[in-house]
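Query structure, 304 C-alpha cells:
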C-alpha cells in the first residue's frame, strides 16, 4: 500500500511520472486500515525537492503511509513560496497535541553555525523534546542527525578542513541489525557536509554504531531500542543532487572540491553515476517496517 498525498502536491506529479505508486487522500479514506503517520520536519531550503526525495523513499512499500509535512514557524523561507507552505505544510503548534508513528528530521546547510545561533533552534528543540513522548521512532538526517545527537546526548560536532562530498563505501558493523537488513558489504551512500561527529563521542553517549565508512566516518547510529536513529549522510539524494550542489558551490565560492566517487573518471564533465538507490530504498523500508510498523502501538495515544 502506498504513501497517500494531496493530489495537487508537486511531488505527486513527479512520482506519478516515475511510476511510483501513491494514493490520493480521498482514496486512502476508502481503505479500512490505520495508516502509519509519519511527520517530515523539512529544514532544507529546497523544500519541494527534498519532500519529493523523501516521499519517493516512503512510497512503494506494503504499508500505507500518511505524511505530515512540517516547517519552522520561527523561520522565513526564502526558497519556498508562502503559498506552498500554507497549502501543504503545518507547524509544530498545529500538531503538538498529536502523536506520530515516525518522524524524519532533515538536514539543512547551516552546519558552520553553532546550534544555538540557528534562528529556529528553540523551536527544533521543542520538537525533539516532544518526539520523546509523542513519536515512536525518529530518523535524523545529516545536520538533523548532528542536531539530534547534540540535543539528546550532548555529542558535539566538529568543523572539517574541507567539505565532505561524494559517494563513499560503507560497512555494516552489526549484521543482525534489521535497519540494514539486505545491505551489500560494502554498500555506497552519499555525504555532503562541512562538519562531523566523532565515533568515540557517539559510543560514549551510549549509542550503538551500526555502519561506518573509512573515508566518511560514522554513517548510522541509534539508541539501543532504535527509537532514535541518526543517519549522517543523504541516501535520499537524487541522481543529480550532488552535481547541483557542486556547481552551486563553484558559483558561490569560485571553486569547489569535486565530489568523490561520483563522476566517471572523477571528471565533472561526465554525467554522474547513481549507485546508492537500492540501499536508500532498503534503509527507509527497513525503518518503516521493522522499527515503526512492527513496534508502534495500534493506539498511538498509548505513547503519551
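Result returned for the query:
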Amino acid at each position: 500500500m502506498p504513501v497517500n498525498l494531496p493530489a495537487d502536491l508537486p511531488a505527486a506529479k513527479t512520482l506519478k511520472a516515475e511510476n511510483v505508486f501513491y494514493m490520493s487522500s480521498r482514496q486512502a479514506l476508502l481503505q479500512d486500515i490505520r495508516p502509519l503517520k509519519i511527520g517530515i520536519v523539512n529544514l532544507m531550503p529546497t523544500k519541494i525537492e527534498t519532500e519529493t526525495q523523501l516521499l519517493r523513499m516512503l512510497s512503494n512499500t506494503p504499508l500505507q503511509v500518511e505524511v505530515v509535512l512540517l516547517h519552522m514557524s520561527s523561520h522565513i523561507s526564502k526558497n519556498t513560496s508562502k503559498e506552498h507552505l500554507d497549502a501543504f505544510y503545518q507547524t509544530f503548534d498545529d500538531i503538538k497535541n498529536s502523536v506520530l508513528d515516525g518522524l524524519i528530521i532533515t538536514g539543512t546547510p547551516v552546519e558552520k553555525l553553532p546550534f544555538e545561533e540557528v534562528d529556529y533552534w528553540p523551536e527544533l528543540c521543542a520538537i525533539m523534546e516532544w518526539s520523546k513522548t509523542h513519536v515512536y521512532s525518529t530518523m535524523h538526517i545529516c545536520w538533523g542527525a548532528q542536531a539530534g545527537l547534540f540535543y539528546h546526548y550532548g555529542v558535539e560536532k566538529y568543523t572539517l578542513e574541507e567539505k565532505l562530498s561524494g559517494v563513499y563505501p560503507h560497512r555494516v558493523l552489526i549484521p543482525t541489525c534489521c535497519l540494514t537488513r539486505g545491505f551489500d558489504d560494502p554498500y555506497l551512500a552519499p555525504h555532503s557536509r562541512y562538519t562531523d561527529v566523532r565515533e568515540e563521542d557517539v559510543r560514549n553517549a551510549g549509542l550503538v554504531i551500526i555502519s561506518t565508512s573509512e573515508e566518511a566516518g560514522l554513517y548510522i547510529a541509534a539508541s539501543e531500542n532504535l527509537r532514535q536513529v541518526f543517519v549522517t549522510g543523504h541516501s535520499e539524494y537524487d541522481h543529480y543532487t550532488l552535481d547541483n550542489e557542486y556547481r552551486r558551490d563553484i558559483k558561490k565560492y569560485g571553486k569547489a572540491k569535486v565530489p568523490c566517487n561520483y563522476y566517471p573518471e572523477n571528471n565533472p564533465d561526465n554525467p554522474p553515476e547513481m549507485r546508492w538507490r537500492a540501499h536508500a530504498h532498503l534503509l527507509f523500508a527497513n525503518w518503516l517496517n521493522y522499527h515503526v510498523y512492527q513496534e508502534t502501538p495500534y493506539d498511538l495515544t498509548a505513547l503519551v
